[in-house]
């Protein structure tokens, strides 16, 4: 048997040094999923909310397809109750990339009588489903690529990487295709479409780690800033034109940041002094509650579960 030499040790050390890390493996799988969807589907679209997950998804799409243009447009479903910082970020980021942005407006669905306006100050999150399904039909999209992760909610934990929707846009968690050994079946029949989730296996901490590694720009509301807030049912809602104090409530100034982005009427902030990525990562590592569970009123207090909403066509 040959002796173990210094050269052998050097070679093994080099192999360990260049071995792919956790984020490398997540990135490689996400890029693979993006390319598979682009290859298998005729007209995919990338869903973009302006939040951290969709910002990471957009960076992964760059890695998958640059230096060419993305093989799909970018779609934002606009509730009309958006944080202005997020809309500014959305427009700036899309302009930097030179890609096509499609905006589907919930207000248009209300004006057309497709959905009922929930009223001033009420969340429009649930009725986004109709706006999304109408946009899918109008543009002929057969795949929607989203940034949802399994660790966000128990309903999303049931979902496959390629999650199929029937001709009515509905999801049946009991009728999904197996995905053994990372083998995916992207075929859809006329009228059906699929939702693709390249970040399924990522966690909130993975996302922030990737944001740090790739130096990804994010909306300023993800970092500590001072703003007027209203404490309601244990949540800190941003005081705005859509959210004003109810009887017994008051507006106060506080140092806060947001862990997730959504309809401003139901997206809560957390008290925080984390002003950069490293400080946010430290906070996330210490947290024991998911960002949606901690800061989304539609998940905490809605009469319908996430699974019910997803059955209707929700993201």
Q: Care to describe what's here?
A:
- By secondary structure, the protein is of the alpha/beta class.
- It has two domains: 23-205 and 306-311, Rossmann fold; 218-300, no CATH class.
- The chain contains twelve helices and ten strands.
- The protein has a six-stranded mixed beta sheet, with helices on both faces. A four-stranded antiparallel β-barrel has the order 7-8-10-9.
- A hairpin with a 2-residue loop joins strand 7 and strand 8.
- The longest helix is centred in the N-terminal third of the chain and has 19 residues, at 22-40.
- The chain is globular, with a radius of gyration of 21 Å.
Count of beta strands: 10
Structural class by secondary-structure content? alpha/beta
**Tally of separate domains:** 2
CATH architecture assignment of the largest domain? 3-Layer(aba) Sandwich
The description of the largest β-sheet is:
6 strands, mixed
List the helices and strands and how they pair.
Elements: H1 6-17, H2 22-40, E1 44-47, H3 52-65, E2 74-78, H4 84-97, E3 101-105, H5 106-111, H6 128-139, E4 143-145, H7 154-157, E5 162-165, E6 193-196, H8 204-214, E7 225-232, E8 235-238, E9 251-257, E10 268-271, H9 277-286, H10 291-295, H11 297-300, H12 306-311
Parallel strand pairs: 1-2, 1-4, 2-3, 4-6
Antiparallel strand pairs: 5-6, 7-8, 7-9, 8-10, 9-10
Helix pairs in contact: 2-3, 3-8, 8-9
